[in-house]
Amino acid sequence: MPLGRPVYHPAGHDEALRAVLQDLRAGRWVSTRNLLTETPDWGLWTQRTQILAAAVAGSDVVRAWRAEEPHSASAAVLYARVAVERALRAHRAGHRQTNDLWREAVSACGTASSMSPEDPVPWVCLLALARLDEGQRWDEHRVAPPEPMLFPGPWHLLGEADKRDPGNREAYHRMLQFVYGRRPDGPLTEAYNFVQWASAGAPAGSSLHLLPLYVRVERYRREGGGERALDLHWISEDSTRGALRALQLWFDYVPPAATSLLDLNHLAHALWGAHQFQDALRVFEAMDPFFTVVPWTYRTRSPGDADAAAEVFVQARARCSNASRAPG
User: Fold this and answer.
1) Whether domain 8-165 has CATH 3.40.50
2) What angle do CA 68, 56, 79 make, to 5 degrees?
3) pLDDT, tens digit (0-9, with 9 covering 90-100), for 84-95
């Protein structure tokens, strides 16, 4: 069956989350409370709370829920998520209230952690906020690394999240973003060292095996990206090895519907770029009918243009499909 035009939705294959997002955007929070109560594991909990908070960071619906149920740990965690999202957006926009929002978010994280001590999300949130400390003025953001080749940073925060949910996907991505912030225009040596360290110790099925693919995309973005041919950046032996390793140690172990849509897109992109067309098609089929704008947008003349990104996605998928049907 031919694959249709891809669509973007933050919830992806998570049907329950898609329904709840609609309610929450309309100001109704009861279904959100019920969904979070029924969320079975910390990985999915982390992902759902992140998506929910990003969707309603501009509204007061979570504040209203918290006012109605002040003893709800779920409400406190989601409120911390919203506070962090607002602080990060203000920072990106250079808003003069960034520091106030930052302090408010740190306080909300502390409240959420005290109400739900076993929850990794408050610590993930503090990791996200660490990027705002651009000069690493805070002691907790310049802790000595666990290995000499790594960098001083918020290792205690990562450790607290990891203790509660080993290999928490978002925690390691937040740490990677912190690394990017240390050298926003410089070489990615620290980032490569970090993702190699993180993925080397990860068990089969861990999304940490995808981390090196993200750094490769970041390098491509920093070098200008654009509508280039599949060049040596993608078909090098190292790139191909990294894509196949992620396929074998992650994709082959986990049900696609339970994974991050962004991870699936990075894997399909890496396999396509490495000319591993049959394997890439497996990933394209697993994510159907959804896609994410990143990383495809960096292959366009207009990064951030969702329509242009979708067109690159469709062309890449068609290339993989045609190659898979061709006689060997």
Assistant:
1) no
2) 45
3) 999 999 999 999
